[in-house]
Amino acid sequence: MKRSNILTVVSFSMTILAVTSSFAQDTMMKKEKIVMVGGAAMYPSKNIVENALNSKDHTTLVAAVKAAELVATLQGEGPFTVFAPTNKAFNKLPKGTVETLVMPENKATLHHILTYHVLAGDYKAMDIVKAIKAGNGKAIFTTVNGGKLTAMLKGKKVMLMDEKGGTSWVTIADVHQSNGVIHVINTVLLPNDKM
């Protein structure tokens, strides 16, 4: 076979592989019911940490999770429900707060705050709304750190109230993970006994 024919066959084969790979990825995305967060696809087949690493809106949260040494936990079997504050949510904190929290000497405080954003179990939006309705307009959830979060409905949106009376809205619900679910929120939640 001539060299030019071999090159044509190789080129054609590579094109077929590229098209097949693209088709497989598109099919997987449709099958997995992908949610876009921070400009990245969140795959239900990946765990909480694997997906969060790809969201440009959650770089502060990822850095905080690493500083608090929670990566292994959130990559664990779970299931977990994570209320994930965006970078803008962290920016609402007083200037210098995040920088102070990620210092090694503040690891315990950071760990306490981050685990206040986590529930043991897989609570989809439907489960949270059902609990709110059963509780006559309010549902109280116990977080992994033992604190309490109050969930309420305002119209069709879920609002969370922390132990200090601060509120946060769920802006993207039901981002499914292999080990639970993420709900994106717009304000950092604070437990009563810290900060």
| Helix and strand composition category | alpha+beta
Number of strands: 9
Binned, the helix content reads 25-40%
**Looking at CATH, which topology of the largest domain would you report?**
FAS1 domain
Gap from first CA to last CA: 75 Å
- Rg result: 21 Å
Corresponding CATH superfamily of the largest domain: FAS1 domain
- Proportion of residues in extended strands: 15-25%
Order of helices and strands: HEEHHHEHHHEHEEEEE
Mean pLDDT: 86
User: Uncertain spans, ≥5 residues at pLDDT below 50?
Assistant: 7-30
The largest sheet is: 7 strands, mixed
Order of strands, main sheet, comes to 4-3-9-8-7-6-5
Note the overall shape: globular
Question: What's the CATH class label of the largest domain?
Answer: Mainly Beta
How would you describe this structure to a colleague?
39% of the residues lie in helices and 25% in strands. The protein has 195 residues and is of the alpha+beta class. It has 2 domains: 1-32; 35-185, Roll (FAS1 domain). The strands form 2 sheets. A 7-stranded mixed sheet has the order 4-3-9-8-7-6-5. Strands 1-2 form a two-stranded antiparallel ribbon. Strand 1 and strand 2 form a beta hairpin. The longest helix is centred in the first third of the chain and has 30 residues, at 3-32. It starts with a helix and ends in a 10-residue tail after the last strand.
